[in-house]
Write a structure and sequence with these properties.
Number of strands: 6
Largest sheet: 4 strands, antiparallel
Helix content: 55-70%
Number of helices: 10
Strand order of the largest sheet: 4-3-6-5
Shape: flat
Oligomer: single chain
Structural class: alpha+beta
Order of helices and strands: HEEHHHHHHEEEHHEH
C-alpha cells in the first residue's frame, strides 16, 4: 500500500508541474473586449473541455484536499485491521514482542514515509498555489466568489489555506491515526474505511465552518451607504484579500439594549419591511456588517489548527493502544 500511495503522490506532483508549464504557456486575453482598461487574464479554456487547464487546476485542488483522507484509508486502516483480520498479529505476539511495542513499530514504519511524502508534496503545493492558485472557473485573480466568499488570490481563504503551510501534514497524520484507531476498534477494513471517510469529512467541515474562523481575532466591518466602512472595500481588490466569513448583525458597541429587547437579527428582519431599512436599523442602534479573517493571521491560524489536529492524533494513538491491548486471540 505504501508503494501505491507513493506512486499516487509522485503522479500528482508530476501533474502539478505540467499544469504550471501549461499555465505559463497560455496566451493572455482581455475580459470584455480589447480596451486597454479591461482586465487581462490567461486563456485557460483552449482544447478539449475536460482537458482545459481551468478544469485541471480545480481537479488538482480537489485532490490536494482529499489526499490526506486517501492516505488514511490506504495506509492507516489496514495497519491494525489488516493484521487482526489475517491473524498475522498472533505470530508477533508469541515471539516475546509486547503489543505496545508491536503497535509502535508498525506505526513508525508507516508514519515516517507518509510524513515525508506529505512534506514533499507540501513544498510543491506551496509553489503551485503561488503560481496558479488564483485561477477559478471562468474568472481571474482577485475575484471574490459570491457563494463561498473566497478570494482566490489569498492564502488565508479555505480553498488555499488547507493545501498550503503546515496543516496538510497535520491532516495526513490525523487521517493515518484515525484510520488506525478505527481499524483497531472495528477490526473490519470496510467498516473502518467508511467510518474514516465520514469522520474525516465531518471534522474538516467543522474546522472550516466553526473552529478556524475563531482561532485568531476577527475583524468586523459594518456596512455604510457607500459600501464598507473606512474604505475597506479597497482591501478586496488590492493585494491578498481577507477571508470573508459572512455577514453578521449586532448592536452598536457601547449600546446596552433594554431588558427584553429583540435580537439584532430580529430588528433587521423587521426593518426590512419599512420604507428606509438603513434608517430603521440606525434608530435601533443595530449594525449590519461582514466578519473577515485578515491575511496577516495566516500563520497564527496554521499553527493553532495544526496544534488541534496533533492533539487529536495523541488521543487517537491512545485509542489504538487501548483497542490493541484489550484484543483477545
Amino acid at each position: 500500500m505504501l508503494l501505491i500511495a507513493t506512486g499516487l503522490v509522485v503522479a500528482l506532483m508530476a501533474w502539478m508541474v505540467l499544469v504550471v508549464h501549461g499555465y505559463d504557456a497560455a496566451p493572455f486575453v482581455r475580459v470584455g473586449g480589447t480596451s486597454i482598461h479591461e482586465p487581462v487574464y490567461r486563456n485557460l479554456t483552449g482544447g478539449f473541455r475536460l482537458f482545459q487547464l481551468s478544469y485541471q487546476i480545480e481537479a488538482i485542488r480537489l485532490l490536494l484536499l482529499v489526499l490526506p483522507c486517501l492516505l488514511g484509508v490506504l495506509l492507516g486502516v489496514p495497519l491494525v485491521a489488516g493484521e487482526l483480520g489475517d491473524h498475522t498479529n498472533r505470530l508477533a505476539w508469541t515471539q516475546g514482542i509486547s503489543r505496545s511495542r508491536w503497535l509502535a513499530t508498525k506505526w513508525l514504519v508507516l508514519a515516517v514515509p507518509a510524513v515525508a511524502l506529505s512534506g514533499g508534496l507540501l513544498a510543491l503545493s506551496d509553489w503551485w498555489s503561488a503560481r496558479v492558485g488564483g485561477v477559478a472557473f471562468g474568472s481571474f485573480v482577485g475575484i471574490i466568489d459570491p457563494i463561498l466568499g473566497n478570494a482566490y488570490n489569498s492564502r488565508v481563504v479555505p480553498v488555499t489555506f488547507s493545501v498550503t503551510g503546515i496543516v496538510p501534514v497535520a491532516y495526513t497524520v490525523f487521517a493515518l491515526c484515525l484510520g488506525c484507531a478505527l481499524g483497531a476498534l472495528f477490526r473490519r477494513i470496510p467498516w473502518a474505511v467508511v467510518a474514516t471517510v465520514v469522520i474525516y469529512g465531518i471534522t474538516l467541515f467543522t474546522m472550516v465552518t466553526s473552529v478556524r474562523p475563531v482561532l485568531a481575532p476577527r475583524t468586523y466591518v459594518p456596512f455604510t451607504s457607500s459600501g464598507y466602512a473606512g474604505g475597506f472595500e479597497s482591501v478586496l481588490v488590492r493585494g491578498p484579500a481577507p477571508w470573508n466569513i459572512g455577514e453578521f448583525t449586532r448592536y452598536v458597541p457601547g449600546f446596552v439594549p433594554p431588558t427584553g429587547s429583540p435580537s439584532a437579527d430580529t430588528i433587521v428582519s423587521r426593518c426590512g419591511f419599512t420604507p428606509d431599512p438603513p434608517a430603521c436599523t440606525a434608530v435601533h442602534h443595530v449594525q449590519i456588517g461582514t466578519i473577515f479573517q485578515l491575511p496577516s493571521h495566516y500563520w497564527v491560524l496554521q499553527w493553532r489548527e495544526a496544534a488541534i489536529y496533533l492533539t487529536a492524533v495523541f488521543l487517537l494513538l491512545v485509542v489504538s493502544w487501548w483497542a490493541v491491548r484489550r484484543w483477545r486471540a
